[in-house]
Amino acid sequence: MPIPHSTGIIALMRVAQIVVPLVLIGIAVLLFMASPPSASLRAGRPLPEMQFTDLNGETVKIGGAQDKVYLVDFWATWCAPCRQSMPFFQELHEEFGERGLEVVGIALESGSAQNVRSFVQSLRLTYRIVVPENEDEVRSLYQVQSFPTLYIVDRNGTIRYAETGFSNEFRDDIRRVVEQLLNQ
Hey, how many other C-beta atoms are within 10 angstroms of the C-beta on 158? Predict the structure, then answer.
């Protein structure tokens, strides 16, 4: 004859079998919704202003009103999609540089300036490259959570295109946005 107390335990176990998975699903949904997207700075918002020194010792300012359109690429030497994007950004630099496009590559998690310089020379990149000493501040300010992170910024300092990662499918969109902004 079963003990009356065991009936309550069995009922409690059945309820737990239903409630625990629902609670876990709820927690997972909340964590997903609370996770910031990779490129948290969105199109239509201003790009924060910051000044850097590039590998040639020249000052580079991004963000704020400027006389150029900026393509700002946050990348790392170990990042395969970053390496895939760089020849395309070099092509844009060569094609649109004289029309007012400034391509700026900001190397993070890539070692010393000399390491980055060697990497850039091996790819024959001629656009501006920055190796910030304050990487944590830069990552936080520009909300870089994955590589590459790309922002295209108009002359008023407003982000017009924001993307993380790179694939050949992005090329047409990037070129279209650059051409539209240069024609304004």
Answer: 15
Place of tokens 């990779």: 38
> What tens digit of pLDDT does each residue of 23-76 get?
545 454 444 333 344 456 788 899 999 999 999 999 999 999 999 999 999 999
**pTM for the full predicted model:** 0.77
- Domain match, 148 and 91 both: yes
| C-alpha span between 62 and 153 (Å, rounded) | 9
Same domain, 84 and 154: yes
The whole domain housing 104 covers 50-182
Q: Where are the beta strands (DSSP E) in 90-176?
A: 101-107, 128-130, 149-153, 159-164
Taking the C-alpha atoms of residue 180 and residue 116, their distance in angstroms, rounded to an integer, is 32
Are residues 58 and 19 part of one domain? no
3-state secondary structure of 117: helix
- Is residue 119 within 8 A of residue 83, CB to CB? The reply is no
Give me 55's structure tokens. Answer: 């590998």
